[in-house]
Amino acid sequence: MRYRSGRARGRARGWVVRGNAWLLLVSLPVFLASSWVATRWAPMALRDAGIGLLVGVLFGLVSLWLTRFERDGDVLWFTPNRWPVLILTTLVAARIIASLWMTWRRVTQATPDATALWLDAGAWTAVAGVFLGYGLAYTWGLRARLKRSRL
Questions:
Q1: Residue 133 · residue 59 · CB < 8 Å
Q2: Distances from the Cα of 24 to the Cαs of 76, 121, 131, in angstroms?
Q3: CA–CA dist 51, 48 (Å, integer)
Q4: Residue 124 burial by CB count (10 A; 0-12/13-18/19+): exposed, middle or buried?
Q5: How does pLDDT run across 93-128, given as a tens digit for each residue?
Q6: Buried b vs exposed e over 44-68: b needs ≥16 C-beta within 10 Å?
Q7: Which residues pair with residue 68 across a beta bridge?
Q8: Which residues in the chain land under pLDDT 70?
Q9: Sign of the C-alpha dihedral, residues 147, 148, 149, 150?
C-alpha cells in the first residue's frame, strides 16, 4: 500500500506544500540536536545523521528530477517515479527487519558481530537522516516548481 500510494498522481496544493516544507525545515534542527544528544550513547550518531541527510537530499533531488509534472489549467499535478518510491519503501522494510533482528539478538544475548555493531553505532540516525533529507529536498523542490508554474 505504501508503494502504491507513494507513486500515485497527486495535486500540488500550495498551502499543503508550503506548510510541509516549513515544518520539515523546523524539524531539521530538532533532528540534529537529538542526534548530538545521542552521541553520548552512539559516538558516531551526529556524523551518521549528517551523512544520511546529505544522501537524502541528493536522492530527493534525483527523485524530483524524475517526477512527471502536468499542468491542467490552474492546477499542477505530479506523479513520482516508481523507482525512488520503491527504494524508499524497501528502506523502510529493511529498517523494520533490522530492528526485529537486533531485538532477537538482544533477547537471545548473542555475541555482537560486525553487522550488529554497525547497526548499534548510530546507523538509525543515518536512516532517519535519509528520510528527512529526502523530504526536505523533494518538498522544497516541489514548492519551487509550484511557485514557478504560477508565474
A1: yes
A2: 22, 25, 11
A3: 5
A4: buried
A5: 888 888 888 778 778 877 766 666 666 656 788 899
A6: bbbebbbbbbebbbebbbbbbeebe
A7: 79
A8: 1-7, 112-122, 151
A9: positive
